[in-house]
Amino acid sequence: MLNKNFWKNKKVFITGHTGFKGGWLSVILHQLGCEVSGYSLNPYGKYNFFKSAQLKKCLKYDFRKNLTNLSDLKKCIKKSKAEIVFHLAAQSSVIESFKNSESTILSNVVGTTNVLEAIKVNKKIKCAIITTTDKVYENLGKKNFFDENSKLGGHDVYSASKAACEIITQAYNKSFFTNLSCNIATVRAGNCIGGGDWTKDRIVKDCLENFVQNRSLIIRNPSATRPWQHVLEPIHGYLLLAEKLFSKNGKKFIGAWNFGPNKKQNLKVLELAKLIKKKINTQSSIVVKRNDKIFKSRKYKIVESKNLSINSQKSKKKLNWSSFLTINGALNFTVEWYLSFKKKENLLNFTRKQILQYRKLYSKIKN
Question: Three-state SS for 280?
Fold first, then answer.
């Protein structure tokens, strides 16, 4: 369980707070009594989690700046008086990385380097967590179960940029942080779902939007298998890890960590879509269209791994963390949040309610 006394009044700096996962993290930290500051570009799209849930209410400082500006980043971290840093800001779409490869590298690789540079010269920061992805592993299409020691790689720009972040963080740890009081770890999570994710070309978003409006859902890669989990699961792991990194034995917890669901959570895209459809009263049909013109007509070949699974035994043994929500439970949380949005309810309160529900469920299981 999280140590509430540890988090009370902690000053926390989050990059990417206007994004999906960063937004959820901001609400949780605010609930725990932290003084939260965020650094990010403006939220993207007509609908986004940050605006919908009025997350500005959870922040001490709301910095809207680019990670590529190291000077601005250093000033903002200094102003926030941060003790803990969570770096989540990134270009997070595989498909978008094919369209804008250069900006993906700048955001993910240069951005992460700047975060490490800013932390290096700030003596107040005691720990930092750099988020990458489960796609950092060299995936040859086999049904491998990747652990933290598996070979890094990337056949698309997004995956390669995140693998680069892993290597860069490891280099900074060994080159600069060995004798400093700040401890840094990288975290790799499975495919996160949950309320408020309007990222383009995400299957859950597409399901919800189409099913609610009784429109047909087009699936281009029905057999692709992913480790689906609710966003609260890995975030809870990040917080447990931050507590350990901050402790006097923090050096023992630097390095890479996987936070993925158990194998039962791994579902094909088509199976996931069918489960979501059952939860919504809809007349929609699911259409498999492998040669979708939208993707086929582009000037680049989109590379997507068919199978992806990660091993989280390290987190289970050393942090006592495990993903416990069933795929059905994770989808219930997600669908309920989306329906609350459609009803125009107070989404900040609803988000807080779901976080408390999750904690109660977690407490029952651990006890």
Answer: coil
pLDDT bucket at 160, cuts 50 / 70 / 90? very high
Distance in angstroms (rounded) separating the CA atoms of residues 81 and 2: 23
Q: What is the dihedral of CA 45, 50, 52, 54, to 10 degrees?
A: -150
What is the spatial order of strands in the sheet that 183-189 belongs to?
61-64, 35-40, 11-15, 84-87, 127-131, 183-189, 255-259
Q: What is the pLDDT of residue 164?
A: 97
Least confident piece of the model among 209-213, 218-222, 240-244: 218-222
Sign of the torsion angle spanned by Cα atoms 330, 57, 186, 360: negative
The alpha carbon of residue 217 and the mean position of all alpha carbons in its chain are separated, in whole angstroms, by 25
For residue 3, count other CB atoms closer than 10 A to its CB. 11
- 228's enclosing H/E stretch is strand 225-230
Q: Cα–Cα distance between 244 and 253 in angstroms, integer?
A: 7
Q: What is the mean pLDDT of residues 10-15?
A: 98
Helices 20-31/232-246 angle, 10° precision = 60
Instruction: Provide, for the chain, the percentages of residues in helix, strand and coil under a 3-state DSSP scheme, each rounded to the nearest 5.
Output: 45, 15, 35
CATH number for position 171: 3.40.50.720
Both tokens assigned to 128:
């930092």
Q: Count CA within 13 A, CB hemisphere, residue 232.
A: 24
Beta partners for residue 258, in sequence order: 188
> How many domains are contained in the chain?
1
Q: What's the predicted TM-score (pTM) here?
A: 0.94
Residues 73 and 118 sit within 8 Å (Cβ to Cβ): yes
Domain span including residue 167: 4-366
Give the Cα separation of 132 and 117 in Å (integer).
17
Per-residue model confidence as pLDDT tens digits over 63-112: 999 999 999 999 999 999 999 999 999 998 888 888 899 999 999 999 99
Q: Name residue 45's amino acid.
A: G
pLDDT digits (tens, 9 = 90+) for 282-319: 999 999 987 654 555 456 556 556 567 889 999 999 99
Which pLDDT belongs to residue 297? 47
What distances in angstroms separate CA 67 from CA 14, 74, 115, 188, 222, one per listed residue? 12, 10, 8, 21, 36
Neighbours of 117 (CB within 10 A): 15
